[in-house]
């Protein structure tokens, strides 16, 4: 869709997730209902209040404070170094910047792998301190005890399977589930995550046919990234989506704007005005 065509949400959207006009914050029950209706919906990452408020006003129903903040916001090379402190501070900012979106905070590497007790402590912090409505954690079978403990404690959990960037040091950045065995494992993990009580599942970098099969099999919504068109929802990292990321963006991503160019142009224009003495002008000046 073009940017102009996307200016307004769909006309009959009061009950839909995307573009819905209600002012209350969305819940995991709204997300579940969208799957029943067969509605496809968008999710974006955000790492600060101002950007989050733009996406909230645009009707994005779910905002993920992803640990992709490591690469996209904090200047790390991977998501691995991101700390729970950093996640808590930026998640709180995103919650403050939004009114309607359901905000999901990522459990950072090392904040839940020790087991359910550590996971509960970390997730409780994000819910109480930052005010997120749900948390996300990576891994299938290996993270089931954590998922069960959080759900039992009343914390909604979004699972993340396929490519799990916190495991980059063992997994690399490769499409997952291409072999028969890998596909079976992924399907098994997806069902197990649902059985453990996850309210949604992110599938990253998996073949489209497999992602569609998981989506058909599960009752909970499946959110794809690099997983083809057959999932219930799609997520993109906002800096990739808006063209702020430097260099090459992943093939599965799409740029809907060119913010890097726009910001660079603005900075250069400002610098030239200052160097040339045309800023500040009379209208910017107090006497
Ligand atoms: O951290 C993140 O942004 C994510 C998305 C890619 C799903 O996990």
Write up this protein.
With 287 residues, this protein is α/β, with parallel strands linked by helices. 39% of the residues lie in helices and 13% in strands. The protein has helices spanning 28-37, 49-57, 69-72, 84-96, 116-130, 144-152, 168-171, 180-195, 208-217, 238-241, 259-276, and strands at 41-45, 62-65, 102-106, 134-138, 157-162, 200-204, 222-225, 233-236. The chain has an 8-stranded parallel β-barrel with strand order 1-2-3-4-5-6-7-8, surrounded by 7 helices. Helix 2 packs across helix 4, helix 4 (84-96) runs parallel beside helix 5 and helix 5 (116-130) packs across helix 6 (144-152). It binds 3-methyl-2-oxobutanoic acid. This is 3-methyl-2-oxobutanoate hydroxymethyltransferase. It catalyses: (6R)-5,10-methylene-5,6,7,8-tetrahydrofolate + 3-methyl-2-oxobutanoate + H2O = 2-dehydropantoate + (6S)-5,6,7,8-tetrahydrofolate. The active site is at 204 (proton acceptor).
Question: Secondary-structure blueprint of this entry?
Answer:
Elements: H1 28-37, E1 41-45, H2 49-57, E2 62-65, H3 69-72, H4 84-96, E3 102-106, H5 116-130, E4 134-138, H6 144-152, E5 157-162, H7 168-171, H8 180-195, E6 200-204, H9 208-217, E7 222-225, E8 233-236, H10 238-241, H11 259-276
Helix pairs in contact: 2-4, 4-5, 5-6, 8-9
3-methyl-2-oxobutanoic acid binds at residues 45, 64, 66-68, 106, 160, 202, 204, 225, 235, 237.
């Amino acid at each position: 869709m073009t940017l102009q065509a996307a200016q307004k949400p769909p006309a009959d959207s009061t009950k839909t997730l995307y573009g819905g006009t209600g002012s209350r914050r969305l819940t995991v029950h709204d997300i579940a209902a969208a799957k029943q209706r067969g509605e496809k919906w968008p999710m974006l990452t955000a790492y600060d209040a101002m950007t989050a408020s733009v996406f909230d006003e645009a009707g994005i129903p779910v905002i993920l404070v992803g640990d992709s903040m490591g690469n996209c916001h904090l200047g790390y090379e991977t998501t691995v170094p991101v700390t729970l402190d950093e996640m808590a501070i930026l998640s709180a900012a995103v919650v403050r910047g939004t009114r309607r979106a359901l905000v999901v905070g990522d459990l950072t590497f090392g904040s839940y792998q020790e087991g359910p007790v550590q996971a509960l402590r970390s997730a409780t912090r994000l819910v109480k301190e930052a005010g997120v409505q749900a948390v996300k954690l990576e891994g299938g079978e290996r993270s089931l005890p954590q998922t069960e403990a959080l759900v039992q404690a009343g914390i909604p959990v979004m699972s993340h399977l396929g490519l799990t960037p916190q495991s980059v040091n063992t997994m690399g950045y490769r499409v997952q589930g291409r072999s028969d065995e890998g596909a079976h494992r992924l399907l098994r993990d997806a069902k197990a995550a649902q059985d453990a009580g996850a309210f949604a599942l992110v599938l990253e970098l998996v073949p489209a046919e497999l992602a569609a099969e998981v989506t058909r099999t599960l009752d909970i919504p499946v959110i794809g990234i690099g997983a083809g068109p057959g999932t219930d929802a799609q997520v993109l990292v906002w800096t990739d989506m808006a063209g702020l990321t430097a260099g090459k963006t992943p093939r599965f991503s799409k740029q809907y704007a060119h913010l890097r160019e726009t910001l660079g142009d603005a900075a250069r224009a400002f610098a030239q005005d200052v160097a040339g003495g045309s800023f500040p002008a009379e209208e910017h000046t107090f006497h």
